[in-house]
Give the backbone structure.
Amino acid sequence: MEIAASVVAKVVELAVDPVVRQLGYLFCYTRNTKEFDGQVQNLNIRRDDIQSKVKEASDKGGSPLKSVVEWLKKVEKIREESESFITGEINANRKCVNGMCPNLWHRYYVSRELRRRQKLWQSSTQKESFMILLFESL
C-alpha cells in the first residue's frame, strides 16, 4: 500500500509540475512582460555606466580590455533583439472574437518566449557581472 501511494505521489508530482509551469506562462503574462521590461532597462543602465567608464578611461589614454568590448557588443545585440521583440510581439494588440477577449495562444507564446529570453540573457550577462573595468595603458 505504501509503495502504491509513493508511486502515485511521484506520478502526480511529475504530471502536475509541467502543467502548472505551462499555465503560469498564460496567467502570469503581465508579470512576465513587466519583469522583461525591467531587466532590459537594468541592462541598458549598466551598459551606459560601463560605456561612460570606457569613454572616461579612453580620455585618460587607456583602452578597454577585449572582454569589456565583447560584453558591450553582446549587450547591444540583446538590446536590439529585445526592442524588435517588444515592437513586434508584445505591442501587437492581438485579440480574438473581434477584440472581445485576449488571444490566449498569443499571450502564452509571448510569455514563454519572454521567460526563455530572460534566462538566456541572464546567464550571458551574469557571467560578466564580476567584471571589473580594467584598462590597458597605451
